[in-house]
Hints:
The protein is of the alpha/beta class. Helices cover 46% and strands 9% of the residues.
Amino acid sequence: MKFYPEEYRIKDQRMKPFIDPEEIWDYLNNTESTKERVREIIAKSLNKERLNLEETAVLVNTKDPELIEEIKQGAKTLKEKVYGNRIVLFAPLYVGNKCTNNCKYCGFRVTNKDAVRQTLSDQELIKEVEALEDNGQKRLILVYGEHQDYSPEFIAENVKTVYSVKKGNGEIRRVNINAAPLDIDGFRIVKESGIGTYQVFQETYHPEEYAKYHLGGKKKDYNYRLTSLDRAQEAGLDDVGIGALFGLYDWRYEVLAMIRHTNHFEACYNVGPHTLSFPRIQDASTIDVDPKYMVNDDDFVKLIAILRLAVPYTGMILTARESIRVRREVMEFGVSQIDGGTKLELGSYHESQNEDQNLNREQFAINDNRSLAEIIDELIDNGFLPSFCTACYRLGRTGEHFMEFSVPGFIKRYCTPNAILTLAEYLEDYATPKVVEKGWKIIDREMADLDNFKRVEELQNRLGRIKSGERDMYF
Ligand code: SF4
């Protein structure tokens, strides 16, 4: 392999680079989309089978508006089947924006001299977490630039600090990480601090395009980044999150590459990625991106529906990069996790700041700056069940996504009851009277839907205990 320096050459044949641009373009250029084929593939996915590259290429190459509608409806049906109407909530927490890399789409790139650099002190981190807990958050993702100051030990200390912050009934029960690739020892150190998922986005899976956008720093190394989550798996970190930054290269190529990446994990570790992310490029300070590959809203909705069908069991994350309108639309077609009450400026959860974003203090522009309370209010109005569940990961039900998928009835026995318990806590501790009223209504409706009497009885018992002040009960 021409771009595979010896020191990164992985001895184990299974670990050979697995993204082959020629193979992907071969599928995209030589795969036809017909009505019969599209319907066959949707049926396979509704049977909860993951799609291969050829099948994904058929859906990607579908141009007929009626068939695209069928793809979206298929994704909607599958989402309801696998995830019910739950939407899991989290918040990003930026800890440090020093960075030695030079990514042309990012406000934190090393060459941006206007960027205001900051790393939260322990005290500032604690204040941020307290502010997030005061809003009712239970799940966080800590975000870092790539810099020698943000070592595995530093990240691990942050994770322990976050878990140690308890304010009233507030606590963070799951901490995920979005940071630079590490070596196996580094991943092991971070894993031992008790994190959930480690996210590393490839940005673009096309090696040549990748080189055009990553001009300096360790992130220039396409292969080191591409194989980073293999090292995480080798370190025993089996909850990993992958993603591409849509707009850097052809979205059709990136979709197939994400499926190839998923294949790879299943083949090598018998577990797919825990989550998929598909952020679209947004404005950023000193951004320098060719608009040629920008993804319009129609294609964006289509690619989310296709990813849903292609990988039925993986969580799909949509962030506040997207507008309220787009988020509302795509939540139906596959998204299972969203952030709420998001602030990107370091220290801004506890230090009030004006509503306008300052892109020299934030990585990119967001388009949904509603509070967590506003988002929960709307989710309930739209028939979704907001969830802060962290049970599987804390009960060691690793590979948990398979649970929902592989164990029939898992949703009704665990996911929905746990979502109900976490929503009840939120209603008791943080919600406005208006949301309390409609929140308990949706809980009653969900309970009526549960067919396992013993579980319903136990759930009612626990809801009573939540009303009398107990917290953190889960199945
Ligand atoms: S995208 Fe990440 S690695 Fe690249 S410049 Fe921004 S913070 Fe640094």
